[in-house]
Design brief:
Elements lengths: L4 E2 L30 E10 L3 E3 L3 E10 L7 E7 L14 E9 L8 E14 L3 H8 L7 H10 L6 E5 L2 E9 L5 H13 L16 E8 L8 E5 L2 H9 L5 H15 L8 E6 L7 E7 L5
Parallel strand pairs: 5-7
Antiparallel strand pairs: 1-9, 2-4, 2-6, 3-4, 4-5, 6-7, 8-12, 9-10, 10-11, 12-13
Length: 293
C-alpha cells in the first residue's frame, strides 16, 4: 500500500516537540531486596509468545502503574498464558494486581518477575476516555530521543509510548521460522509433558509472517524508523487467517494494521520496547489509537 498516512494531531496528543506532555516518566530503580512488592498495572501491551523449555511458551506483558502520583512503566515476565486459569486471564487495558519480584536476570529497571498465583484482575478500561486520562500525559514525541538515551546509557528507559507524525508503510515478510535453539526449547517442553497426562502438548508454531512499520516521529530532521512489530494481535490475526493464501493474508494484515489502526483521523502512537541483551534495538509492542469515547 503506497499511500502515506498522516496523523491528525488532536488536542489531547498534540505533543509538538517537548518530550512527554507533562515531562518524562520517572525512571525508578528496582529495589534490591528479595521480597516481592504488590503492583497495580494497567496492561497496555502483550507481546507474541516465544518458545520456552520450561513453559513451552512465554509471554512478556507491559503496562503503566496506576499510581497517578508516580507513574512508571512495568514489564512482567515470564507469563504462560496457555496454562492460566480462566479467572485470571487478562486482556489489554485490564487493570491487574500482582505480587512481583525485581527481575535478577533482566537489568532493565522496568522488569519484574510476577508470582502468577497472586494475580487478580480488578477491572477493564473499555472505552478510550478513561484510558486517555492515564496514557495521554505520558506520550512522548521523539523516537530519536529514546534511541539516543539508550545509546548513551544501558539503564535508560526501555519502554515508551511515542506519538507518530506519519506512517509511511507496513512491510510484511515471510517469517524465517524458529531458530535451532528455539526449536530445541519447544521439543524439550513437549517431551517433558509426556510425564503429565492431560496437558496440552500442542507445540508453539512460528507465524507465517513478520511485520515492520515505517514511520516518522516528531523529532526535527527525523530520518524515519523501521521497526518490527511483536504484538500478540499481529500473530493472533494470522492464526485466524490460516485458511487464506499468502496474498489474501497479507491484504488482511495490511488492512488491519495499516489502513484501520493508522487511519489519518486517529491520534496514533506506538508502544516501543527494547531487548534485554540489545538495549539499542527497539521493537513496536503495539499501537495506541484512541477514539473519542
Amino acid at each position: 500500500m503506497a499511500a502515506t498516512l498522516v496523523m491528525e494531531k488532536g488536542a489531547a496528543m498534540n505533543t509538538g516537540h517537548q518530550g512527554s506532555l507533562f515531562g518524562e516518566l520517572e525512571s525508578v530503580a528496582k529495589p534490591v531486596e528479595a521480597s516481592s512488592q504488590r503492583l497495580s498495572v494497567l496492561i497496555t501491551v502483550k507481546a507474541a509468545p516465544n518458545p520456552s523449555a520450561q513453559y513451552g511458551e512465554t509471554v512478556c506483558v507491559a503496562g503503566l502503574s496506576t499510581d497517578v502520583e508516580r507513574p512508571r512503566w512495568i514489564r512482567l515476565y515470564p507469563i504462560n498464558f496457555r496454562h492460566l486459569e480462566q479467572d485470571i486471564r487478562f486482556s489489554k487495558y485490564d487493570v491487574v494486581e500482582v505480587d512481583a519480584f525485581p527481575s535478577t536476570k533482566d537489568p532493565r529497571v522496568e522488569s519484574w518477575r510476577p508470582r502468577m498465583e497472586t494475580l487478580r484482575v480488578l477491572r477493564s478500561l473499555k472505552p478510550w476516555k478513561p484510558r486517555r486520562a492515564l496514557l495521554d500525559p505520558i506520550v512522548e514525541s521523539s523516537m530519536c530521543a529514546v534511541y539516543k538515551r539508550a545509546k548513551a546509557d544501558a539503564r535508560a528507559p526501555s519502554l515508551a509510548l511515542i506519538s507518530a507524525l506519519r506512517v509511511d508503510g507496513f512491510d510484511i515478510e515471510p517469517h524465517p521460522g524458529w531458530t535451532r535453539d528455539e526449536q530445541l526449547k519447544i521439543d524439550a517442553y513437549v517431551n517433558q509433558l509426556e510425564l503429565f497426562p492431560g496437558q496440552d502438548k500442542t507445540p508453539l508454531y512460528a507465524p507465517r509472517f513478520r511485520g515492520f512499520y515505517r514511520w516518522h516521529c516528531h523529532e526535527p530532521g527525523c530520518g524515519g524508523h523501521r521497526q518490527g512489530i511483536i504484538d500478540w494481535e499481529f500473530v493472533g490475526l494470522q492464526r485466524k487467517l490460516r485458511r487464506l493464501d499468502d496474498v489474501q493474508s497479507v491484504e488482511a494484515l495490511k488492512k488491519r494494521f495499516l489502513t484501520e489502526i493508522c487511519h489519518s483521523g486517529r491520534d496514533l502512537a506506538f508502544y516501543v520496547g527494547n531487548q534485554a541483551k540489545r538495549h539499542q534495538t527497539f521493537s513496536i509492542l503495539g499501537a495506541y489509537y484512541p477514539g473519542n469515547t
